[in-house]
Amino acid sequence: MNAPSTSNPLLTGILSTAIEAAHVGGKVLQDWIGRFSVSEKSRANLVTEADHASQELIHQTIVARFSDHGFLGEEGLCHESDTSDYRWVIDPLDGTSNYVHGFPYYAVSIGVEKAGELVAGVIFDPNRNETFAATLGGGATLNGQPISTSGETDLSAAMAMASLPVGGDEHDPAIKRFLMSLRHLQTVQRSGSAALNLACVACGRIDAFWSSSLKPWDVAAGVLIVQEAGGAVTNLEGGRIDIMVPDLLATSSRRIGKDLTGILN
Ligand code: IPD
Ligand code: CA
Ligand code: CA
Fold this sequence. Notes:
By secondary structure, the chain is of the alpha+beta class. The protein has helices spanning about 10-30, 50-65, 95-100, 175-180, 195-200, 215-230, 255-265; strands at about 40, 45-50, 70-75, 75-80, 85-95, 105-115, 115-125, 130-135, 140, 145, 160, 185-190, 210, 230-235, 250.
């Protein structure tokens, strides 16, 4: 498979390892279908054996090549490196609720930082066999072909995805934002996988995605993929994105980003 271009051999190796690891994780997820059991980490925050098994094999695949790198993974994986600037940020199954219900919208997400800057990202959708990838400065691809955002600039023609909190009431800021957005956008959906939403912004299937309840593993790969596809990613107020902070607004164009920050705040 073609990958985003880079002349840095280390980054080339990192990206090909991330793609391989994402495919390994995706296969584990599909192999567990029909035989996993479900537990709740907190209310409606589900986890299965597949989440753990996927993370385990992803980690093994990466560590075999980059034993000194740091790791942060959703299912209790946290290893800070004393000797390397690189850190892999892993969601072994983004969209666990969808997975549990048999709704085929979930993915493996692997982002790589160097000294805190995102340098590579891969999102793999095992249902559609779609691999989204990017390297810093090297562009973004879907199954090896270059991708770009829709470039939509007109909110009234735009389709967006929003995340909504579990059990939120009408006073919840995220619900208020959702209601406000309905007046301005053509369509607003909620899908259950932040990583795939970002992938969809990157390849032009949707024009915006926002959330105020994200973790770094939900977005590490997708932020870079959207940026490298020509989209804009900020926090909800239009400021600098920080994957360690839960809010994010990803848009097909700066124009849509600017208009949405006006509406969502
Ligand atoms: C969840 C999904 C969902 C988002 C939640 C995340 P998980 O990840 O990305 O779209 O709204 O905030 O926790 O738990 O399925 O990995
Ligand atoms: Ca997630
Ligand atoms: Ca997860």
